[in-house]
Amino acid sequence: MSSPVDLSAPAGAYDAFLPAAVQTSREQRLWSPADGALPSLYLGHGAPPLLDDPLWIDQLFAWGQGLPKPKAILIVSAHWEQAPISLSAHGANTPLVYDFGGFARRFFTLQYNTPDAGTLAATVRSKLADTTPVHQHTTRGLDHGAWIPLMIMYPLGDVPVLQLSMPTEDPAALVAIGGRLRELREEGVLIVGSGFMTHGLPYLTQDAVMGRTLPGWSADFDQWAAEALAQGDVETLARFRSQAPGMPYAHPTAEHFLPLFVTLGAAGNPEKPVDTTIEGFAFGLSKRSIAVS
Q1: With 278 labelled, which of 95, 131, 154, 219 sits at a CA distance of 20 to 30 A?
Q2: Rounded to whole angstroms, how far apart are CA atoms 203 and 186?
């Protein structure tokens, strides 16, 4: 399912969405301990043209509004692979990383100013530093895997955001990292893995990008992942390189699928069956996104 995308006015759908969304966001209820642990999320973050897709914008915004507003957000993006584990700069108005090319100038001028996330950074270090080194960056900002979906889900920019690097491509190790962070959910922190359920950019045709056809490798991988998630089958998901249909076309490199394992690790039970929150396809790629309690 995809909505008409107008690429003639970059971020035009976002501009149209923003006034009403800001008003709605001002009325969003804040998380309290009585709410219990927030879910952990895995979402498809698209690319700058997500901001031209009114359906996808509405889906992400409704998802964010359906939760109590978190005290802070910790996000792992496909676009920051670095070991040892590293944290983004946590000062107020953390800069953005415009880590893309070939798009309209407008996308390089967008801003998403968020509050200081120093308290969250200290807490994350305390959860991880006894078993692994944690490097604190002083200038590294939020990449587009973080700021593009979050500026839709939380358009006021009033929630502290901290980004955590992805230090390995080993699914089991990423599940373990998520597990170390699980208790943050009970403190009102929203843990987000940001990727894309399929990401075979080199194999997309113009017809697929325009929504006229759906690549078989994208549909097949998406269906396989949906079935494994519905069964809580983390072991099968971890063997995606060798067992998933549509490979290696669905993920010629793995970084957009791997944040899923941090999400699953941060869940109360990584093997709990998972329901999909957002599904469908954009530009031929699967938007499947999940919440795990």
Answers
A1: 95
A2: 41
